[in-house]
Write a structure and sequence with these properties.
This protein has 182 residues and is of the alpha+beta class. Strands 3, 4, 5, 6, 7, 8, 9, 10 and 11 form a nine-stranded antiparallel β-sheet that branches. The chain has a two-stranded antiparallel sheet with strand order 1-2. The termini are far apart.
């Protein structure tokens, strides 16, 4: 009997070592992976469709206002969320964080510190300034700052549903383009 339990334990061990970060989420706010557009519209009545999208990444994109993020992703205030759908299933959530251009690096640094306190040390920090937590269910991508018009800058927190076919952040260049394009 002991040999049987040992063999069973050794067979199951590889499945229990799957990569995850502390506090791994299954979405953001009330949004959960796999929700339909109508589910999201029911929860967030201000949902607005985005007219022009890059169809390589999603069939449709809707933007909603999350009135209070309750500290998720280190955000304690109202935030807009771009919800990307493929086959009427929520697969990506993108959160823009903006500020004055001269302050954006400081804002991003504070955001990164809050996220590290919630989710631990990131799995990837690359030379382009991207920070990535790879999860089993959700991976999180924190983009570098992007300078916009009018002395404004923005960076993005992008959450990716890893069950929807996006499997490896290091190898999927299309996904990295999605995160950069915002």
């Amino acid at each position: 009997m002991k040999k049987f339990l040992l063999i069973l334990l050794l067979l199951l061990l590889p499945f229990s070592v799957a990569r995850a970060y502390p506090g791994e989420t299954e979405g953001f706010g009330l949004l959960r992976w796999g929700m339909s557009v109508s589910d999201v519209k029911h929860l967030y009545h201000d949902a607005v469709p985005v007219k022009k999208i890059n169809s390589d990444f999603a069939d449709t994109v809707w933007v909603v206002t999350i009135p209070d993020a309750h500290g998720e992703m280190g955000i304690d205030s109202e935030v807009f969320a771009a919800c990307y759908f493929s086959d009427n299933r929520l697969i990506t959530i993108q959160l823009p964080i903006d500020g004055d251009t001269e302050d954006i690096d400081t804002i991003r640094s504070h955001q990164l510190s809050r996220m590290i306190s919630l989710y631990g040390i990131p799995d990837i920090e690359n030379e382009q300034g991207s920070t990535i937590w790879e999860g089993v269910v959700t991976s999180i991508y924190l983009s570098p700052g992007i300078v916009m018009k009018g002395n404004k800058s923005v960076f993005f927190i992008t959450l990716l549903d890893m069950q929807s076919g996006i499997k490896n952040l290091r190898e999927n260049k299309d996904k990295e383009a999605l995160v950069r394009e915002g």
